[in-house]
Amino acid sequence: MQAIYSYAGATQTRRTPALPVRVGGFGGVQGLVDYLSAHHITHVIDATHPFAAQMSANAIAACARLNLPLLSMERPAWQARPGDQWQHVPDMAAAAKILSPMLKRVFLAIGRKQLAAFVGLADEHQFVLRVIDQEGGALPLPASSYELIVARGPFQLADELALLGKYRIDCIVSKNAGGADTYAKIEAARQLGIAVIMVDRPVLEPRTQCQSPQQAMEWLDRQRC
Q1: Strand 70-73 relative to strand 86-89, pairing
Q2: How many other CB atoms are found less than 10 A from the CB of residue 203?
Q3: Of the chain's two ends, which shows fewer C-beta atoms within 10 Å, N or C?
Q4: What is the DSSP secondary structure assignment for residue 202, as one 8-state letter?
Q5: What is the pLDDT of residues 63-76, one digit of tens each?
Q6: Residue 12, pLDDT above cutoff 60
Q7: Angle of helix 184-192 relative to helix 157-166, nearest 10 degrees?
């Protein structure tokens, strides 16, 4: 079995597998159709981030055009537990809209791409941002409105407790990414009684799904039967 691993190229630091790798976008649905056809791809596994909605939608459309089997490998979403103080919102604009002026110090655990939604709040809030890469272009927020942390998970509970205490965080804005690597901030918020504005995952068309690489390999084996 031959495979190609594709990265979007959004981050400079990557965990590279022992497979041939390509980096970069495809140019929309038609570009992905052309790539899949040119490389004689027979099966597609969409293992993108749960919030990479456009790429997942393109994969759905491209595979439908070519009649290719498609599997979405997606880790389970986090579920609220007793003691959590979550407020669910559908997107970043909604998160910014409900962010109370009373919650002055906010940990935006959302990466770089959607920070623009919070620009209008820069005068009344102080943000802590955590990003994977130092490089990545200028941030849309005024420099005086945030403190920047460059780090990549997995993050440990003790470290997240220390971070939230050090910056006197009143509220966390988080995508419901699921998985263990970044869950510690949610557990720390629970222990400290900190509010969490939880951005729910985008809704996509129904498709075959699994939750682990092992399940993905089992799916491939069944496809060959």
Answers
A1: unpaired
A2: 8
A3: C
A4: P
A5: 999 999 999 999 99
A6: no
A7: 60
